[in-house]
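Running low. Invent one:
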Amino acid sequence: MQAFLGEMCSYYYLYVLPFYNSNKTMYLNFIKAETLTASGIPARPVLTSYYKSRNFKNRARDSFNQYTSPDQTILCIDSRQNMYSQLLAGLVNRKKVIRLGAIFASAFLRAISFLKENWGNMCEDIRSGVLGSLITDSSCRSSMADILKSSDPKSAAEIQEICRRESWEGVLVALWPKTKYIEAVVTGTMAQYIPSLEYYTAGKIPLVGTMYASSESYFGVNLKPLCKVEEVAFTLIPNTDDGPVDEEDKVEKEKLVDTADLKIGLCRYRVGDVVQVVGFSNKAPQMRFVCRRNVVLSIDADKTTEEDLHNSITKAKDMLNGAHLVEYTSYPDTSTLPGHYVLFWEMASDTTCIESGILENCCLVRSTGTKSSIYIYRRCRSHDKSIGALEIRLLKPGSFEALMDHFVTQGASINQYKTPRCIKTKDALDILNSSVTDSFLGKKRFSPKSRPKVLFSPARAD
């Protein structure tokens, strides 16, 4: 069903995007190793299952599926050899590529970072027409031999001239000049990567989020793929999922469902995403993804959600005087009394140009606003004194790549990896703490203000 719906979506985009049906696509796909359950059943991410399936291997070779990457490189289990080979194939065909992308924006940006480190070797491979010794996987080598059919010194020189620039602003436009758009998930927590993508495209290549899906099901499709990323909405596909959508304020907690209420052979699950209905297409609702409904941080009575954290980071960004925050995560540090929130920040540039007072003020953003959760946090900070001052720890460049490498070695899928918004393991925390270059604490004390006005009163029982 998912392969069928994916094919139907591609036909729709062939219709709405006139340039869709031409040339090649550098879409970066990755798989991860399988694990076995206690009963011996292989367990793997849904995308890995799809890439290894006959549906993928025997797919129709239309323009939508005309990847620059040979299937053998996609199926390579070594993520570095996989990424090297796919990027190299994309560079060889760079003047034929009209679409770039990956499942998540974070994976695509990781590929750009990998290219920064390895473009010299790739240029040498293109110049000589021979794959270098960095690639040892036999399937990758044999498939790439068909890509590197002959030496191409001219193309290698062009790529070298582009990549040796001091600034990589607009580098994607220069390397793949015919690109019409970048396809990746750029909603929810992936929205934080939009500034980086716009930097590498110089704002000249649209960012497109085509569909809303999970491992279990497709939910919706973006009927206006070239809209602004902040306006992306997904039209519900009515025949993909018959599960209910709960109103956020009416969710019944811990509700038991009798097995007699479930159809035999089916499982009931809650995805946990919060969506906002913003319109309709005919009678199908159009939804905007908000966040995953969960609590990220909690020290005492406070409950900080992913949305709360994202809003605080957004406020802090406005105070940075143009400095670019690359990535962030958090940690509830209870090693001190009282415990306090820690934010790990990686900046794109030298932070010496940012006054320490500004960063200290950034530590106060969690205490500003009128939302109920902010009130509780402020009360815990100032009245109960059960939460200490928020701390920002600045990290050296590449820290979050090291964190990702750690999780990938622990079995995470590079294709579906998202930076965790809260660090929960000692090993991951040690990686970040070992990269700290400076730290700042919020010094100001807040007086707990009155509770925000209730905008909606509970319904009265008649």
Summary: The two ends are 47 Å apart (CA to CA). Residues 234-292 form one domain. The chain has three domains: 2-209, 234-292, 295-441. Residues 256-260, 445-462 have pLDDT under 50 and may be disordered.
